[in-house]
Amino acid sequence: xxxxxxxxxxxxxxxxxxxxxxxxxxxxxxxxxxxxxxxxxxxxxxxxxxxxxxxxxxxxxxxxxxxxxxxxxxxxxxxxxxxxxxxxxxxxxxxxxxxxxxxxxxxxxxxxxxxxxxxxxxxxxxxxxxxxxxxxxxxxxxxxxxxxxxxxxxxxxxxxxxxxxxxxxxxxxxxxxxxxxxxxxxxxxxxxxxxxxxxxxxxxxxxxxxxxxxxxxxxxxxxxxxxxxxxxxxxxxxxxxxxxxxxxxxxxxxxxxxxxxxxxxxxxxxxxxxxxxxxxxxxxxxxxxxxxxxxxxxxxxxxxxxxxxxxxxxxxxxxxxxxxxxxxxxxxxxxxxxxxxxxxxxxxxxxxxxxxxxxxxxxxxxxxxxxxxxxxxxxxxxxxxxxxxxxxxxxxxxxxxxxxxxxxxxxxxxxxxxxxxxxxxxxxxxxxxxxxxxxxxxxxxxxxxxxxxxxxxxxxxxxxxxxxxxxxxxxxxxxxxxxxxxxxxxxxxxxxxxxxxxxxxxxxxxxxxxxxxxxxxxxxxxxxxxxxxxxxxxxxxxxxxxxxxx
Length: 550
What we know:
- The protein is an alpha/beta fold.
- The protein has helices at 35-45, 76-81, 113-123, 138-148, 152-198, 205-217, 219-234, 240-254, 259-288, 293-313, 318-384, 425-428, 431-445, 465-478, 491-494, 521-533, 539-549, and strands at 2-10, 13-19, 24-28, 62-69, 89-96, 102-106, 109-111, 124-128, 391-403, 406-415, 423-424, 453-457, 484-487, 499-508, 511-518.
């Protein structure tokens, strides 16, 4: 509920602070006194666009602050999702700066206009004769049906099931698309994979093969040099080893005369051992070196195969070829894996679809059962409002399509007079009829759902007498479960309010100021009498005003 409103420097309002009751409040005042200004200020709190024309003093900022009690609205999750600080008594503040920029705050936390609009829609419903368009919209008609049918939990369950169904449907579509793409490439990928597998690649083998190829290609040259090494080293008379041994003997003879000689002898002994070992290995390698044309051809062929594959796949190493081989293997296997995954998802999708259909059917049955009940409730209220012959038809078509709130298409048809054919509400109902129908709808919904605070802005235009009294009674009845405001020119409705506020304007120096004041009982009698007879208040008007208030 709207607990209080503070307005500073807005249009004709210099400063205004007002508290409101949680029942039925009426707001009256002469045309042009500032009722539309009050609604404009509330509209800014709800997230409407602002401009500099809103400022009374163009040098000062405009501040509009509204305090709401929201403990019964289950808005904790909304605050959490939008990273706002939740308070049972929430303050919304809107500031318009002289620069033209505007700022919005919820409990002192900055918010953007979209967040403010979403929150405002859950707190305040400003309804005028010109704002009955939503009644002609199918979604709103469905919401009315569902509220009376107590379909809320069923619709939520349907939405959740539909979300899961669409998510699985999307996943399945992606897998099918992926499989189709892989199937197109399957044969080519298989060919490339088999080609790589046939090469029997081993990481690091390219370097070994290239080295072996060099050896096999130069067998005669290598053998010739090994044999020369062995000849020089092992020749009996002048071989290198023989000469080194003679040097060793000579050093041994003089080693006793100096530690330096002894060290030279030890170093030569060590070197001789190493040289003898080297010569031995050269001899072994020389024996292994054999011309092998078949092996040469085999190595050459294997290397050429590796080079061809590297060129084909535009890589430089066997390791990179093995990575490509693994990727191709995964793609080929993926086709088979996808068949199983698709089958599994299809089974899951069928199960989810059955669940969605079951919930949609439950929603449909409840709507079908509730439609005649809702029609009778609307007709009963409209009969009190002078539309005795008004009649409705609600067509509910259960389709194969999945809509956000079920599988139904709902059409609300209206006939204002007996004997006239039914037509679409938006085409056959007048503005005054739409206002009364909307009032009837809101009155019914007040008993079935937690509506936000509602402000009826002169929806009584074009009615008077007993019908006006009935409209006032209906709004007063609604205030038993919600906060209701009525901006009205009719004394019959003004008299029904638990609280009565008057909008007035006065001159102050060179400027005009609008004010909003809560009337005392005596002031209410005077105001209602003035609404009955004009500025010249008669005794009969005073008596009539007292009778209405009674």
